Amino acid sequence: MDASETVKKIRFTLNGRPVSATVESHVDLVDLLRRFDLGGARESCGQGLCGCCTVVVDGVAMSGCLTLAQLVDGKRVDTIEGLDQTGALSPVQQAFIDEGAFQCGFCTPGFVLMTHQLLERNPDPSEPEIRDYLAGNLCRCAAYPEIIRAVKSAASRMRASAAA
Amino acid sequence: MTIHRPTIDRPMPAGQVGRSVPRLEARQKVTGRADYVHNLVVPRMLYCKVVRSTVPHGRILSIDTSAAEALEGVYRVVTADDIRTVVPNPFYGPAFHDQPVLAVEKVRHVGEPVVAVLAEDPYVAAEAAQLVTVEYEPMEAVFDEIEAMTSTAVVHEVLKPAGTFPDLKHLVGRRDTNIALDYRLRRGDVDAAFAAADHVFAHEFKTQQVMHTPLEPMVSLAEPGEDTLTIHTASQSPSFVRIEIARLLGWPENRVRVKVPHLGGGFGAKLYIKLEALVACLALLVRRPVKWSLTMEEQFYTITKHASTFRIESAVDKEGRVTGRRCEVFWNGGAYADIGPRVTQKSGFTAPGPYDIDNVSIDSYALYTNRPPAGALRGFGIPQLVWAYESHTDLIARGLGLDPVAFRRKNLLRDGRPQATGTPVRDAAIEGVLDDIAARMAWETPFDRGSGPVKRGRGIAVGFKASIAPTTSVAIVNVAADGSANLYLSTVDMGQGSDTAMAQIVAETLTLRTEDVKVVHPDTDVTPYDMATLGSRSTFHAGNAVKLAAEHARDQIAALAASLGLPPGSNYAPADLFKKKYGMQAGNIIGVGTYIPEYKSPAPETGLSDNVTPFWMVGGTGVEIEVDTETGHVRILRMVNACDLGRPLNPKIVETQISGAALMQLGFTMFENMDLDDGQVTNASLADYKIPGMHDVPDQMESVITEAEQKSGPYGAKGVGESATFGVSPAIANAIHDAVGVRLTEMPLTPQAVFRALREAELNSSTTSA
User: Fold this and answer.
1) Beta strand residue intervals within B368-472, DSSP E
2) Residues contacting B457, CB < 8 A, separation 6+
3) Nearest neighbour of B660 by CB, restricted to A44, A80, A143
4) Is the pLDDT of residue A98 over 80?
5) Is the pLDDT of residue B290 over 60?
6) In whole numbers, what is the pLDDT of chain B averaged over residues?
7) Listing from the earlier edge strand, what are the strands of the sheet with B450-451?
8) Which residues are CB-neighbours of B319 under 8 A, at least 6 positions away?
9) ipTM metric
10) Residues B669-686 pLDDT 10s
11) Running DSSP on this structure, what letter comes out for residue B567?
12) Interface touch B123/A142, C-beta < 8 Å
């Protein structure tokens, strides 16, 4: 196949800024983000099972390693690096620090992004709901008890600031 | 329940040790900006992909690389012959020099690297690797550790122990055996103890092969310089990598630079030397930087945890005291020794468990097989041993009609009493750990035993581990002219929180805030030697070195004050001293600390030594579970893990270590298992090899820091990375027995295994009653 048939120029919004890139058809979203020097989404299992490569596309969390880069053409792409653009950590990030909800940190961006999505949809999740929602993210250091605490703590902080 | 812990809850004078400081790198980790080699890219870099063996044991007849070389974008295809132009004798390993950089003449396990393909585009490298054809003449293979003892299939023609360990020297030149190391211990008169016994109990227990699966898969990147080589690697042992690469290349150590940023998990997988030898050779061969990243699947063929068989036999007197114990342990080391022989010995000598037994014999065998290699995995063999001896202990108690906790109390090793090697046990809160678990679980109180098809049970187990000895750590503390401090240390923070804990030690000693101490990550051009980050050794060894370095700096600051005419004990800020001395903000004070504990090597014939370890780690687990007798499904309702870790430097991080270790072992206990078919791992992906997730966390989980102090440790502390793994597996098996009366002797404890055991028991009882 001729390269011109597989290479495409795409335009998308990356953490709020309009950008463009020329990408081959086999390139995935994790590779694409690496070209923008964003390393928070990381390929680990390569099968969409661990959540380390989580990226938010048009408001929906996706596995970056299973999403072809050309498919984000015209879409809004948000990554972990977009959360603290103002210089302040998000309430979820702060709760993860306060509860010590990670060890090696490799899976943490995926958990933080999924927690944001959970709390947007359900501001006061029960523990079973937290476990269900985060069941697709794996943490080999098994900081799960601390993650559950962090999600609860972030939820109450966010509810308090919404009420204020 | 509140447990009053006077030692633990009292912070040190400067308020730094004993404080739950959040991890120093916390912000980088929650923003996705922490550095991992995984993300590292350097100019002119090539990507490596290896072609792996498809047979478990075979002679290489031919390698055809022509189609791969013809693919557009391929830079170079490399075989063992090319490697030999860089390293004439390309065999590496920490215990044995048995592992080829690329397979030489033979392959010894499925997945062994045979050919390396280099390209600027990783997709091209991967495609080209598919185009290489290798022809093998299959050879007879052996997979089981017991069969390997006597099989006609021999994995290595001759044993090649490295010079590193004096106690492996006697193995040099042994031929035609799969026994890489036979360790023995003889204490007292075991035969007499058994002859005089009122009761004898004998059992056999097995564990399965599992993998660490760090979520940052193993990765190394080598960059050649003019006459130097820099290796960026996700390694737990930068100092060892430097020494081993320098040995392979015949270079002085100082021409090899090894740099390690954060690790995305290690658990023992990233120890000693793994990918570094090949990337070093490739980078020197092509004079360009080379990066090699494994996929999750490839990790299963790189390093694993030993499968094992443990035959254990006990002589017990009529008072319920264990008077003799025979232990035979067989470690399935796979095709290359890695650190397996050390597991065989360093863990082997604790095989009788934390009990006071006068007559003991231990035979522990490291075996080569044609499986993927096995090495260190969080516990260094101890979880396999505790699985067996604590299941066995429970069975003895049941056999004698004694309460399992009371039976343990009667036989526990108490302070000052000699362990099997003859080394007296000091600062090991074995009884304290057992008491904490029993108290938390209200062991003496009756509990709900379930109803209908769902039965409940409880189980308890306690284990211990000796630290790897003798090993050295060196640390440097650099105090700048404004009084702030840098710590230079080759200990690797792979998530366990060592950066933070070490900074706390510096801060406590120099009366700084922990947050104001900067830890310089391992870079062997800059940071001094540290044996490795393994076996929960860092807090004790590196921690002692760090404390010595900080004290050295503190003493020099005091001397500077005295030289400036300040009376001893006067209140001054270091910044003022520097200014006074140098007339401006200038200068440094460098403190250096080196630590190696005392150690006495075991006598070769008896395995005895009166100083075999600088400290003991103790961990125990209690569980309350539910077994569904219609499905065999086990649900863990409550899990209590207690550890003796001396005084906690950072209680919050310690508690995370305890629960994390226990949950990892929970996966190994309940479901993780590498399925092998003729040496091929048929479930080498997270789709088929399940690791614990959110839903596997027990409903109720408690981490207990047992009141203790390690007097020889820095501020009374010692390591804890592994301790909570010890008791998990046998506690659950004991609880299953308690709930439904069946005993599982092989891990993992899957619903199928429980169900089969239940049906078998039913069948036996109906046969008996008929």
Assistant:
1) 374-375, 450-451, 454-466
2) B449, B624, B625, B627, B735, B736, B737, B738, B739, B740
3) A143
4) yes
5) yes
6) 96
7) B450-451, B454-466, B616-628, B634-644, B700-705
8) B410
9) 0.97
10) 999 999 999 999 999 999
11) P
12) no
Classify burial at B165, counting beta carbons within 10 Å of its beta carbon; exposed 0-12, middle 13-18, buried 19 or more: middle
DSSP single-letter state for residue B412:
B
pLDDT band at A4 (very low <50, low <70, confident <90, very high): low
- For residues B615 and B630, membership in a common domain is answered with yes
**CA of B463, closest CA in chain A: separation in Å?**
21
Cross-chain residue pair A131–B697, CB shorter than 8 Å: yes
Are residues B546 and B558 located together in one domain of the fold? yes
| Residue A32 at interface with chain B, using a CB cutoff of 8 Å | no
Other Cβ atoms within 10 Å of B509 Cβ, number: 26
State whether B656 and A146 contact (CB < 8 Å).
yes
Domain that holds residue B447: 378-468+603-767
Same domain assignment for residues A42 and A65: yes
Question: The domain that contains A34 carries what CATH number?
Answer: 3.10.20.30
The nearest alpha carbon in chain B to A54 belongs to B32
Distance between CA B469 and CA B541 in Å, rounded? 10
Quickly state the pLDDT bin for B2 (edges 50, 70, 90): very low
Distance from CA of A62 to the nearest CA of B (A): 17
Domain shared by B561 and B616, yes or no: no
- Domain presence at residue B739: yes
Rounded to whole angstroms, the Cα distance separating B155 from B176 reads 8
| Whether residue A117 sits in one domain with residue A65 | no
**Range with the lowest mean pLDDT among A129-138, B166-175, B245-254, B655-664?**
B166-175
User: For B28, how many CA atoms within 13 A lie in the half-sphere containing its CB?
Assistant: 14
Distance from CA of A60 to the nearest CA of B (A): 19
Q: What is the CATH number of the domain that holds B447?
A: 3.30.365.10
Domain membership flag for residue B19 = no
Q: Which residue among B137, B276, B722, B760 is the active-site one? A: B722
* d(C-alpha A41, C-alpha B468), whole Å: 37
Report which of B217, B238, B164 is spatially closest to residue B468, judged by C-alpha positions.
B164
Residue A50 sits at the chain B interface (C-beta within 8 Å): yes
Q: For strand B307-316 and strand B229-233, is the pairing parallel, antiparallel, or unpaired?
A: unpaired
Verify that A9 and A73 share a domain, yes or no. Answer: yes
Give the number of domains in chain B.
2
Whether residue B200 has pLDDT greater than 80: yes
Same domain, residue pair A78 and A8: yes
Identity of the residue numbered B594: T
How do strand B307-316 and strand B322-332 relate by DSSP bridges?
Answer: antiparallel
Residues B629 and B760 in one domain: yes
Check if A26 contacts B (Cβ < 8 Å). yes
**What's the domain count of chain A?**
2
The reply to whether A56 and A98 lie within a common domain is no
Domain extent, residue A139, equals: 91-163
How far is the alpha carbon of B395 from chain A, nearest alpha carbon, in Å?
31
Is residue B703 assigned to a domain?
Answer: yes
How many Cβ atoms from other residues are within 10 Å of residue B424's Cβ?
14
Task: Establish if A88 touches chain B: CB-CB under 8 angstroms.
Answer: no
Q: Is residue B616 located within the same domain as residue B708?
A: yes
The predicted model gives B25-34 an average pLDDT of 98
**Measured between CB atoms, which of B22, B267, B295 is closest to A46?**
B295
* A75 in the same domain as A10: yes
Name the pTM for this structure. Answer: 0.97
Choosing from A44, A61, A82, the residue where a domain stops is: A82
pLDDT band at B568 (very low <50, low <70, confident <90, very high): confident
Domain check: are B547 and B610 in the same one?
A: no
Contact list in B for residue A95 (CB cut-off 8 A) is none
B560 with B618, same domain: the answer is no
Claim to verify: residue A106 and residue A154 sit in the same structural domain:
yes
The answer to whether residue B191 is domain-embedded is: no
> Residues A14, A78: one domain?
yes
- For B727-763, the pLDDT digits (tens) are 999 999 999 999 999 999 999 999 999 999 999 999 9
